[in-house]
Amino acid sequence: TSLVPPPPPCGCPPLPLLPPLGAPACGIPPAWAARLGATGFLISKCCFPLFKAKPGKAKRVRTIFSSEQLARLEQEFARQQYLVGQERCLLASSLHLTEEQVKVWFQNRRIKWRKQSLEQQQAKLAKMGLDTPQR
Questions:
Q1: What is the reported pLDDT for 33?
Q2: Burial class (CB within 10 angstroms; exposed 0-12, middle 13-18, buried 19+) of 102
Q3: Which of 65, 85, 88, 86 is nearest to 76 (CA)?
Q4: Helix (H, G, I), strand (E, B) or coil at 36
Q5: pLDDT of 104 above 90
Q6: For residues 30 and 88, what is the distance between their CA atoms, to the nearest angstrom?
Q7: 1, 23, 25, 107: which could form a disulfide with 19 (CB 3.0–4.6 Å)?
Q8: CB atoms < 10 A from the CB of 90, how many?
Q9: Count of structural domains within the chain
Q10: Are the beta carbons of 41 and 18 closer than 8 angstroms?
Q11: Is residue 101 pLDDT above 60, yes or no?
C-alpha cells in the first residue's frame, strides 16, 4: 500500500515521502532528520515551530529549584520583597545560583504576591457585599 502524506494544516503542499524511518539515512541532512514525523513524512518548516525561533537568540532553559533553595528564597522574600546588590549576591552564592536566577525568582514572586493580595482584597470586599474594584 502506498502511504500518501496528508496535507499540512497550514495549507502548504506536502513534502515528498522519505525512506522509512528504519532505512539507512545516507545523505539526508540532519535538519531533515529532525523534522521527520512518526509516519516517516517530512514535516514542512511552517508547521514545525522549533524552526521559527529568532536566529541568534537561544531560548533560556527553565531553572528547576530544589526544595531547599525554594524554602530559603521564600524565607528571604518573607523578610523583604526586594533584594539588591550585596544581599542578592550573597544569597545567590549560598544557594549555588546566579544573581540573574535570584533576581528573576524575586520578580516572579512579587508578581504572584501582588496577584494574591488583589484576590484577598476582592474576597474581603465581596464578603462585605461591596462590588469588586475594576482594574
A1: 46
A2: buried
A3: 88
A4: strand
A5: yes
A6: 43
A7: 23
A8: 13
A9: 1
A10: yes
A11: yes
The single-letter code of the amino acid at 107 is Q
Label residue 134 by pLDDT band (50, 70, 90): low
Residue 134 covered by a domain: no
- For residue 68, give the C-alpha cell: 531547599
Confirm whether 20 is domain-assigned.
Answer: no
CATH code, 77: 1.10.10.60
Distance CA 63, CA 66 (A): 10
Helix 67-79 vs helix 85-95: crossing angle, to nearest 10: 160
Q: Which of 17, 11, 1 is nearest to 47 (CA)?
A: 11
Report yes or no on 57 lying in a domain: no
Domain that holds residue 79: 67-128
User: Residue 46 has which C-alpha cell?
Assistant: 511552517
Give the residue carrying C-alpha cell 523583604: 80
Predicted confidence band of residue 29 (pLDDT cuts 50, 70, 90): very low
Continuous segment of H or E residues that includes residue 98: none
Q: How far apart (Å, rounded) are the C-alpha atoms in residues 100 and 63?
A: 11
Alpha carbon separation from 14 to 2, 6, 7, 9, 46 (Å, rounded): 15, 7, 5, 10, 11
